[in-house]
Amino acid sequence: MAGSSYQYDKSTPFFSTTDDDDAAFLRSGRRAYESSTIEDRHQQLLEERRKIEERTIQSSFRSIGLLHESEAVGAATAEELDRQREQLKNTESKLDEINTTLRVSQRHIQGIKSVFGSLKNYFSGSKNDAAKMSTSVSGGDLNKEVDNVPDTKTRLAQVLEKTEVDAKSSVHPVERFRSDEPMRSQDVDSILDKNLEDIGLSISRLKNLGLDLNKEIEDQNVLLGRITNKTEDVDFKVQSQTKDMNRILKK
After folding, report:
1. GO molecular function of the protein, one example (predicted)?
2. pTM summary value
3. Does some domain include residue 81?
């Protein structure tokens, strides 16, 4: 062909040197495509890593939030148990006073039994007083004292105060995470380390609070047992003394 620049390689008569240039061009394009594919894959992996890190951080914040809620519930329970313990102690104290009064009353009744019938009229006038005494022993004074409970510092209350102070001094986890800036790998590691530390501290506080709550419940069960026994003793004495007074007065 006239004016053609197509050149033949004498050593390979079937192909021209132009064919070699075309092959080199094709290889170059393939390398560029492979390089682009590797870069895209690298970016894809980085994006997947970023999403995993974000999900992990969000999960750690949710865990911290749930632990804080559990601490709040535990603190409220501790407060209620502390108030209940004071009420029970006050109730037991009043029962002790009532038992003392009843023992004195019993001695008086025994003295009354030894008096001759000529004193019957005298004791008849005391009938209403004896009935009122029995009523007051089992009645409203005890309930009134239970409602008026003094504030007393206990080990459980001290643990509760420490829990509340720790909770107030810590920043809410969601607030620490709010940021429009992209996070670097070292930022992610730092956040996760801090969150794991907070989780560990919160679990430790919950464990100690749980142990104290368990101890408090056990102590109150013992206290309830004593109160039950003393209440039954008071009830028996009141009924017995009422019967004695009725016999003396021949009702």
Report:
1. syntaxin binding
2. 0.54
3. yes
